[in-house]
Amino acid sequence: MKKIENTFAVTGFVGQDAEIRSFATASVARFSLAVSRQEKSGDQTSRVSAFQNFEAWRKNENTDSFDILTKGTLLTVEGYFKPERWTDKDGIEHNRITMVAVKFYPAAEREEAPVEPAKKAKRSRK
Of 5, 7, 20, 111, which is most buried with the most CB atoms under 10 A? Predict the structure, then answer.
């Protein structure tokens, strides 16, 4: 059976300063990224944007990385999807997918077009 990886990598702008909560041995930062892509419809091109929510956990002695989670910072976030399920006080079941950020770092300001490898010249056989 083929192994399926549960990972993601996304780049976007931090929507607002992270909400950081500290516990006995660890802290969590919750933050959002504004992500977008271009859509083309006929001759018109438009940008479609959305906010994605993330959480990042660190041991209390390693929370310095949270300092870059400020509004407007262009970040690349890598992590995994964590399914959550719970029942509220009225007995209604809920579920959601949480995006857990394992790594996040400043992204390059501008992506450059990938360089295509040179095509090999064909040799003729005689």
Answer: 20
SS3 of 68, please? helix
CATH class of residue range 8-106: mainly beta
Nearest one of 52, 51, 72, 65 to 20, comparing CA atoms? 65
Q: Count CB neighbours of 43 within 10 A.
A: 5
Q: Which 3-state string (H, E, C) describes 73-98?
A: CEEEEEEEEEEEEEECCCCCEEEEEE
pLDDT digits (tens, 9 = 90+) for 84-98: 999 999 999 999 999
pTM of the predicted model as reported, rounded to 2 decimal places: 0.75
Strands (E), 1-126: 8-14, 19-22, 26-41, 44-59, 74-87, 93-106
Q: 8-14 and 26-41: which strand pairing?
A: antiparallel
